[in-house]
């Protein structure tokens, strides 16, 4: 009988925790680029290690920065 192994959960270092962001500014593109992939997609919460509220703030800031053309939209071409 094969025993199933449980996955080991390793704690990720949250990028926002190292910066200690209380307020996310859409004009801070250097910080926001850490949360988008090479293709321009917003990284998932399980990847970034942010809390729900922080992920929402970052996502809103990225969308605002895209609207003002500070960050690129996700590229759809392959």
UniProtKB/TrEMBL annotation:
The keyword rRNA-binding applies. InterPro entries: Ribosomal_bS18, Ribosomal_bS18_CS, Ribosomal_bS18_sf. One of its GO terms (biological process) is translation. Keywords: Ribonucleoprotein, Ribosomal protein, RNA-binding, rRNA-binding. GO terms for cellular component: cytosolic small ribosomal subunit. This is Small ribosomal subunit protein bS18. HAMAP family: Ribosomal_bS18.
């Amino acid at each position: 009988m094969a025993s199933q192994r449980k996955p080991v959960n390793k704690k990720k270092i949250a990028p926002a925790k190292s910066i200690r962001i209380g307020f996310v500014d859409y004009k801070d593109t250097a910080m926001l680029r850490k949360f988008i992939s090479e293709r321009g997609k917003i990284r998932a919460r399980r990847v970034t290690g942010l809390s729900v509220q922080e992920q929402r703030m970052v996502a809103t800031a990225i969308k605002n920065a895209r609207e003002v053309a500070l960050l690129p939209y996700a590229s759809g071409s392959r």
